[in-house]
Amino acid sequence: MGERADRLRMDVDDIETVAVIGSGNMGHGITEVVAMAGYDVTMRDIEADIVQDGYESIEWSLDKLDESDRLDESPETILDRISTEVDLETAVAGADIVIEAVPEQMDLKKDVFGDLDDYAEDGAILASNTSSLSITEIASATDRPEDVVGMHFFNPPVKMDLVEVIYGAETDDDTAQATYDFVEAVDKTPIFVRKDVNGFVVNSVLGPFGEEAAWMASEDLATIEEIDAAMVYGRGYPMGPFELGDLTGIDVGYHVRKEAGKEIPPLMESKVEAEELGRKTGEGYYRYDDGEGVSYEQGQGEDVDTLRIEARMVNEAAKLIGNDVATPDAIDTGMKLGAGFPEGICVRGDKLGLDTVLAKLEDLHEEYGAERYEPADYLVELVESGKTGKEAGEGFYEYNTGSGPGDYNTLNWELTDDGLLDVELDRPERMNALSNDLMDAVVDLLESIDTEDVRAVSFEGAGDRAFSAGADVTGFADIEPAKRAEPTEVFQVVDEFPRPTIAKIDGYCLGGGFELALACDLRVATEDSTFGFPEINLGLLPGGGGTQRALRMIGEARAKELVFRGEHISAERAEDWGLINRAVPSDEYEDTCADFLDDLVSGPPLALQHAKRVMNEGADEDLDAGLQMESQAFALLLTTQDAREGTAAFQEDREPEFTGE
Ligand SMILES: C/C=C/C(=O)SCCNC(=O)CCNC(=O)[C@H](O)C(C)(C)COP(=O)(O)OP(=O)(O)OC[C@H]1O[C@@H](n2cnc3c(N)ncnc32)[C@H](O)[C@@H]1OP(=O)(O)O
């Protein structure tokens, strides 16, 4: 066990050895994640056969990851870190953190925690992977509730990025912080749930998604298919509420609501009574065994009152924030990573207008008198103080009001002292797909930043899988064709930005993502990156300049091959065809990018600006016109201080210092 001078100063660096209790779906998934991150881990279950099944599932999963090149090490190396055990005392001996993942029954969990209290090392973190039970009550089975914390992985842990870190009533801050840091150390994204509320964050907000939909269908306000179609095609959710209910099991949500003493929508009640519980029983809201299964279509449900469902989710978020359970950022991260929402619910609330959301809830409350529509105090407070959302400049978040770039939900940026504007597309859970929000953020950043402070711009994608996998296809249903008939602003703004731009590409660079990279001046990629215009497979064409920029760059035959066939090409081929400047091995990538950027940042700003302009504009002109533009720019640059400095430095055999004057 790691040395700990003072157990209250628990730190992630103290954690070396992990025990996972339970080898079912969650238990073996968590074991795999922890071992992949380099920790020694013991997985324990009550019988040798059961724990062996879990181990074999890990072997299978690691092989699959290996086949698709998703492992940094061999499956054997990772498996070597995993041992299996049946005896609980042996399993937890020496473990710095114990993660319990036994079935969701309070009595069973309390038994396990009672035993952990006896056997686990003094000061070890005792974490429960419960998705719905009270951490405070689980902790009450021990004499050390300050060491007990919730650590809710989502299913399947290997694929899902989110982990909720939940405080019980007595959880020590150091325990919670070390757990949070440990989640990051195993390459997952943690969010704090600072109070032990029913449903934690994700299930609290997600609750009304299925429930309000069921109330609406119970009252014949719309059909199941209409509501699902409206939420998916109209509002961009990855699944309809009924489709999701059938997948997770209608009884699951039903029991959670029953235990919380909530009123149950009649449709949900009748499905549970008839034991039509979803996919697992062959019938739920849809019929699977004897029917066509999920059967909604685009265009259905255009009149469905989707605000009713979204207003209730926004209200849940407001309750969590007002009660200091979670921040808007944590909630939004949770909903995107844990529930696949196209954007955070707080961002969505701000866009809908919190006054609109409040008015909807008040109308419903007046009509039905039901507690579920009662507006959260915090929501009322925001609206009364004029913080009604994005349009007002502040809601759950503060927005940029035009006095310079601000913080963005889907994009991170930093301007270094030497003038590098470092931009990160930040939607790793969606392969950094370009949502309207993200494209607006890029435009806002480039248009509001003071160009004088910038010497070069670099774009990269967050996470380790993609630069960007294209425009966000889930938002296509919202686009009005008439509005899309003009070139998309973001590609123009990047193309015309008066400083050199570079795309740093590590992973998928597809569709609109590829077009963003092509709108940059230069492109450096890892050899493992993949490029392509898959739009044709969606019945579309590259709509962000791809047909035109690729054509001019690589000629008709190759551009048409890319666009017509929609196939992915390797970085090697992209380099060979002249689509990118360099394809380099991963271990040379950062250095190569740094070399490019050093040259751009220390180069003469005015000369770079004019070189970029005449090359961009000249590409569309005949040679004479292009040469004319070039000569004019050359003459103009001769009058600059930078040109004098450059020539003087050459003669004096020193490095020039360009100032842009
Ligand atoms: C004007 C411009 C037009 C366009 O750009 S149209 C879009 C063109 N792009 C595409 O068609 C690419 C779509 N994406 C893919 O084909 C695949 O992804 C990849 C090959 C890039 C990776 O495949 P895999 O490794 O199996 O990952 P995964 O489970 O498909 O993706 C992880 C999550 O990312 C979401 N996602 C990926 N690309 C997009 C996208 N373009 N728009 C919206 N979401 C996207 C997925 O759905 C999924 O999400 P979940 O985990 O919730 O299932």
UniProtKB/TrEMBL annotation:
GO MF term set: enoyl-CoA hydratase activity; NAD+ binding; oxidoreductase activity, acting on the CH-OH group of donors, NAD or NADP as acceptor
PROSITE patterns: ENOYL_COA_HYDRATASE
Keywords, ordered alphabetically: Fatty acid metabolism, Lipid metabolism, Lyase, NAD, Oxidoreductase
Enzyme Commission numbers on file: 4.2.1.17
Catalytic class of the enzyme: lyase
Pathway info: Lipid metabolism; fatty acid beta-oxidation
Domain of life of the organism encoding this protein: Archaea
Domain named 3-hydroxyacyl-CoA dehydrogenase C-terminal: residues: 199-288, 308-399
Domain 3-hydroxyacyl-CoA dehydrogenase NAD binding: 17-196
A matching Pfam family: 3HCDH_N
One GO-annotated biological process of the protein: fatty acid metabolic process
The keyword Flavoprotein is annotated on this UniProt entry: no
The keyword Lyase is annotated on this UniProt entry: yes
Stored PANTHER family: 3-HYDROXYACYL-COA DEHYDROGENASE FAMILY PROTEIN (PTHR48075), 3-HYDROXYBUTYRYL-COA DEHYDROGENASE (PTHR48075:SF5)
Family: In the N-terminal section; belongs to the enoyl-CoA hydratase/isomerase family.
Name recorded for this polypeptide: enoyl-CoA hydratase
Organism placement in taxonomy: Archaea, Methanobacteriati, Methanobacteriota, Stenosarchaea group, Halobacteria
